[in-house]
Amino acid sequence: MTHTPLKAIMLFSIVLLVGCKEHNEKITKKAMSDNILLQEWNGPYQGVPAFDKMSLDAVKPAMEEAMALNLKDIEDIANNTEAPTFKNTIVAMESAGKPLDRVSKYYGIMSSNISSPEFREIQNELAPKLSDFRSEISQNEKLFQRIKAVYEASIKTPLEPQEQRTVELIYKRFEINGANLDTEKKKRYAEINKELSSLYNDFGNHILHDEENYITYLNEDQLGGLADGFIKSAAKIATDKGETGKYAITNTRSSMDPFLTYSTNRELRKQVWENYYSRGDNGDEYDNNAIIAKILKLRKERVGLMGYDNYAEWRLQDRMAKTPENAMNLMLAVWPAAIARVKEEVTDMQTVADEFGDHITIAPWDYRYYAEKVRKKKYDLDSDEVKQYLQLDKLREAMFFVAGELFNYKFTPVPEGSVPVFHEDVKVWEVTDKDSGKHIGLWYLDPYARQGKRSGAWATTYRSSSSFEGKTNVLASNNSNFVKPAPGEAVLVSWADATTFFHEFGHALHFFSADVKYPTLNGGVRDYTEFQSQLLERWLSTDKVINTYLVHYKTGEPIPASLVEKIKKAATFNQGFSTTEYLASALIDMKIHLADPENIDVDTFERETLTELGMPKELPMRHRTPQFGHVFSGEGYATAYYGYMWADVLTSDASEAFREAEGGFYDKDVANKLVKYLFAPRNAMDPADAYRKFRGRDAKIEALMRDRGFPVNE
Fold first, then answer.
1. For the domain bounded by 5-180, which CATH number is listed?
2. Could you state, in order of their start, the residue ranges of all structural domains in the chain?
3. How far is 689 from 698, CA to CA, in rounded Å?
4. Does the model's pTM come out above 0.90?
5. Alpha helices of 11-55 — where are they, by DSSP H?
6. Which of 236, 252, 443, 622 has the most Cβ atoms closer than 10 angstroms to its Cβ?
7. In what order do the strands lie in the sheet with 458-463?
């Protein structure tokens, strides 16, 4: 998934109300030059962030100075006495806020990659100010009237395509954020946003607390079934935490998932499972249920000010799905096949457990463990054997190869120390065109889990491509949470984690390939922007990648053809689990926002809704509601988690375009159309139109059903 944590919060407009007019007038260039976080980026590659010079004490003053500078930019635009034009209003807005944009990059790193209790205090202080900032801009009547004038003029006399798209997106953004409300409603709208900003901050910090503090320590006699590499990593983590001689299972997916898959100790599997799936739901001061209830009420009240019946209706109006009903129809079309497959999978697992004489009934903490046994029985496929051929460094090389074949990119490591990084684990590559050598940007990789880093995997940009002020290069990063190996050991990952690695790299390629003039066009439609990255996952299983980059971490021998054949035969294995755990989260996200939030009991709602849906008792939602950061630590994925499924329909359909081509997944003609219509335009083109230009028609859900091995009604 793509998350630019702060950018997602600040995308609407990069300005903040701080202080008063007198304070703004005191801001000087000297004040800017004194704070490293405000300074223009210097050095090679059109300038790079000074990550090595960040300091906590610089964050708050830098943010406040930058906000005030940005507010002045906006006031100058709003108070311009000349008639509104695209140049003096829209272009001026696109150019505003550069100091705050720079500060935001540092702030985002401190929030997501190297957080600390001290930084979280600063976050708590700044959250309501950031909310005031967004409200001040969205409710600036003079500014909106200028935007509206340009928008209405463009309807009568259309601008060139990218200019027109920019005007329409900016106008719609203001409109759906309350710009047309009366004074009293605008005031309440701002108050709600301010309260929500603090709630989002608290929600995310509560999850981080539970991830950092619920650790399972094992003794040597509790390591049954675990791989040597995993054991060594667990030992190192325990030692780093002052528990020498023990083995730490951290409360993150990257640690939990392999443990539940391989550990022979059922009681410990249950303990690790309960720790993970109870994050934010422990009935203590870090419990998120009350926060969720408040968020739901405030969201409904806020959109009600604009006349919408519910939050989902408001949110989806500018998405590909358009309405909650369309999104629900897609999910419910797949749901019956998914839970039917789960029933089959559980039956197979129970049979294996009975054959082993384990005398158990399959429970959620057993699913991964016995699914692995079934995989070995049905396909003679051992996931741990596959992992021996999935080295992180080789997977990175494979991604570079794919980028070279499809996008003509070359990745070259930059000399260590030539580009500042915020942690020793971060490495940097220069991206160039393979033929011309033209510089395109830098790619940062932050691969390992650590204290203060949020869980999951994401992509972000420090600088996006645009050309209205001269072509800018791209600074993009991928961030993962692989368990850092013991010194000298290879990082071996599961097939699922390798797929995620490719997925996030797909977002980076989307950033690098952008061919847009204005910054606003670098945004995206949530149920479309996951499509490009989901599509890139498919190249992991292509023959060119498998035969070249999947080599044994000790011997260097290529993965045997017989093992590859087993992997391909098992491609739809466990689709019941993966589809159902995801869809359960997406359905709850939508249904909880369609429900009446008055006096809602979040735990009860989740439990009763899952029962109504017929959720199999043997597995949980991928993200239980109290830990659903996608939805409740911000608004990026709120009522939009379905978007992965929407995008997957496009992905499956687009994959068939490559399969049907003469050159398969490396067909040059299809690859050129992929870059031209699906990657380069970003949001400069309506997503539905872009897909039709690529495929010649709309996507079909049947491709998705075929991909997952579900019955297809053609």
1. 1.10.1370.40
2. 5-180, 214-277
3. 9
4. no
5. 21-25, 29-34
6. 443
7. 409-413, 427-433, 439-448, 474-482, 458-463
